[in-house]
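Researcher: Go.
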Amino acid sequence: MNDNNNGIIRLKAVRIIFLGDSNVGKTNLMNAYDSIAFNPDYTPTYYMDKITVNYRFEDNDYKIIITDFPHRFKNGIRAYLRSARIIVLIFDMTKKDSFLCLSEYLDIIYETVGKNANLILIGNKSDLSDKWEIKEKDAKKFAETINDKFFLSSAKDGRSEFIQFINECVEDFIRNFDGQFRPNQPIQNNLINENMRRRERVTCWI
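Model: Structure:
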């Protein structure tokens, strides 16, 4: 349940962090969740990108906070990992190196929050199957070894499927771990809106 005192509602926050190599499509997947059109041109991310969305599930309101962390600042993610409830590892199906570099993130994740972290593995650019350098069965096998869910996505052609998958992961977390996270910052009751969303870009420092 949401705390409601004197017109103030404290929404429980489900924090999600997107991790992965540069140019794997993290920003376009963020844009898909934020209903922003697909951008085929690659632009490096030099800031921490964050989207906040109100989400209603089983008659309760929650706040989904998704953070896209630039690969070049991966050594600074530890503080964010500690508050993340779902960690999404993203790689490019057409670039084997982006798959191999996930081990670097796993080392940081395990050192910071242990091996019981709630992980999701996403192979992006499923629409470019003729250029894949990673076999789907190998990605699934890797996901199994780290007790991870695996999802094939396309930020270009599979946006609705990606949004549905993330929402299902959020709902699974709420069902299983609802009592383990605290309410987010309070907001006025009359500001509650199911469709409310906010986008923030925060400068990262090495």
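Model: The radius of gyration is 17 Å.
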